């Protein structure tokens, strides 16, 4: 019953926060509602995933969160104008670091400590990582080295091309994941928790979760945005750079996916964790870049995509380590620790640039 009431309560708190801004006690209640909405989103995503089966189930949560995240970015770009020119780049890079090092590292560490070794399908993981590397290079690296513009941006024609290719790559990946080579993304034989073969939820329960999941996700993003000024104030008090605010908001938005992926790894379903993690990163680039590019071209909004030198080094290190991690189809806790150290370095250098 709690999981049914939580999205409605979180949405009510979001409305109250918009109507009564600045209230200290309301901010505390909103923080509690945010946690409840995250737990509820994970629950309803798991219900849908169990009913649909893999890899369609994990795709639901990744796609839903990404669509809402895109809407949040676009609304902030429209409100901030030139001041938000780097917001899409910062959000995408933060998402890459959080997912590829934070989420994946936590899943590998927890899964490795509990089960010693975990296995997954190399075919699916390599397709996901290869596509993610191409998308990241196309959208975050190349704008730094093109010569048509003076700043780390694309020209209008270059931006239209990059956005089109990003969307095409994402659509092709979804086709491969769900149709052409669906078996590459199914859990390896002999793995899975004891409840993996439990009776699927009823049609009525699935439809209920399908209706409550978007409500919970909207509440998560909305409450994260409402609480961001207070988070910004706390960061300012401790002297944190402005970029840290984007990291904090990204972590809040990615909480449902993170919790779902960690729970799957703990239950010895690492394949589902990887599907969810890398699927979220791919959707973040494959949907966000075309959306913000269209807004930039149609509305004349400035858009800076090229990553700086420090970010390029961290991205290169992340993809190199990820390639080695996913190369054998087996993981253990040490690999998770390495990813988490890279994630810690990213956070530290964001605080101390």
From TrEMBL:
<feature type="transmembrane region" description="Helical">
    <location>
        <begin position="125"/>
        <end position="145"/>
    </location>
</feature>
<dbReference type="GO" id="GO:0005886">
    <property type="term" value="C:plasma membrane"/>
</dbReference>
<feature type="transmembrane region" description="Helical">
    <location>
        <begin position="312"/>
        <end position="329"/>
    </location>
</feature>
<feature type="domain" description="Sodium/calcium exchanger membrane region">
    <location>
        <begin position="209"/>
        <end position="351"/>
    </location>
</feature>
<feature type="transmembrane region" description="Helical">
    <location>
        <begin position="26"/>
        <end position="44"/>
    </location>
</feature>
<dbReference type="InterPro" id="IPR052946">
    <property type="entry name" value="Alkaline_pH_Ca-Antiporter"/>
</dbReference>
<keyword id="KW-1133">Transmembrane helix</keyword>
<feature type="transmembrane region" description="Helical">
    <location>
        <begin position="207"/>
        <end position="224"/>
    </location>
</feature>
<keyword id="KW-0812">Transmembrane</keyword>
<feature type="transmembrane region" description="Helical">
    <location>
        <begin position="336"/>
        <end position="352"/>
    </location>
</feature>
<keyword id="KW-0472">Membrane</keyword>
<feature type="domain" description="Sodium/calcium exchanger membrane region">
    <location>
        <begin position="25"/>
        <end position="178"/>
    </location>
</feature>
<feature type="transmembrane region" description="Helical">
    <location>
        <begin position="56"/>
        <end position="79"/>
    </location>
</feature>
<protein>
    <submittedName>
        <fullName>Ionic transporter y4hA</fullName>
    </submittedName>
</protein>
<dbReference type="GO" id="GO:0015385">
    <property type="term" value="F:sodium:proton antiporter activity"/>
</dbReference>
<feature type="transmembrane region" description="Helical">
    <location>
        <begin position="91"/>
        <end position="113"/>
    </location>
</feature>
<feature type="transmembrane region" description="Helical">
    <location>
        <begin position="276"/>
        <end position="300"/>
    </location>
</feature>
<dbReference type="GO" id="GO:0015386">
    <property type="term" value="F:potassium:proton antiporter activity"/>
</dbReference>
<dbReference type="Pfam" id="PF01699">
    <property type="entry name" value="Na_Ca_ex"/>
</dbReference>
<dbReference type="InterPro" id="IPR004837">
    <property type="entry name" value="NaCa_Exmemb"/>
</dbReference>
<feature type="transmembrane region" description="Helical">
    <location>
        <begin position="244"/>
        <end position="264"/>
    </location>
</feature>
<feature type="transmembrane region" description="Helical">
    <location>
        <begin position="157"/>
        <end position="176"/>
    </location>
</feature>
């Amino acid at each position: 019953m709690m999981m049914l009431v939580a999205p409605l309560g979180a949405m009510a708190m979001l409305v109250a926060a918009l109507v009564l801004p600045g209230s200290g006690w309301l901010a505390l209640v909103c923080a509690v509602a945010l946690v409840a909405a995250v737990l509820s989103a994970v629950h309803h995503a798991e219900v849908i995933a169990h009913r649909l089966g893999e890899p369609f189930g994990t795709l639901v949560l990744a796609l839903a969160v990404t669509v809402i995240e895109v809407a949040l970015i676009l609304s902030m770009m429209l409100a901030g104008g030139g001041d938000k020119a780097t917001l899409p780049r910062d959000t995408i890079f933060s998402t890459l670091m959080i997912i590829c090092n934070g989420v994946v590292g936590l899943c590998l560490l927890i899964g490795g400590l509990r089960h010693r070794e975990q296995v997954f399908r190399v075919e699916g993981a390599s397709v996901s990582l290869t596509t993610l590397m191409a998308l990241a290079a196309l959208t975050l690296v190349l704008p730094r080295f093109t010569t048509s513009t003076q700043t780390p941006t694309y020209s209008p024609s270059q931006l239209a091309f990059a956005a089109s290719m990003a969307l095409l790559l994402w659509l092709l990946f979804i086709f491969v994941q769900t149709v052409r080579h669906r078996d590459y993304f199914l859990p390896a034989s002999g793995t899975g928790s004891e409840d993996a073969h439990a009776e699927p939820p009823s049609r009525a329960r699935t439809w209920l979760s399908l209706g409550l999941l978007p409500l919970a996700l909207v509440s998560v993003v909305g409450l994260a945005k409402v609480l961001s000024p207070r988070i910004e104030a706390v960061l300012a008090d401790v002297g944190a750079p402005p970029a840290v605010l984007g990291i904090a908001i990204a972590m809040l938005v990615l909480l449902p996916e993170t919790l779902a992926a960690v729970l799957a790894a703990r239950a010895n379903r690492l394949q589902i964790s990887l599907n969810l993690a890398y699927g979220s990163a791919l959707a973040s680039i494959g949907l966000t870049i075309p959306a913000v590019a269209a807004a930039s071209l149609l509305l004349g909004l400035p858009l800076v995509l090229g990553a700086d030198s420090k970010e390029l080094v961290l991205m290169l290190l992340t993809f190199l380590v990820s390639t080695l991690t996913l190369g054998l189809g087996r993981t253990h806790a040490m690999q998770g620790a390495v990813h988490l150290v890279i994630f810690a370095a990213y956070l530290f250098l964001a605080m101390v640039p």
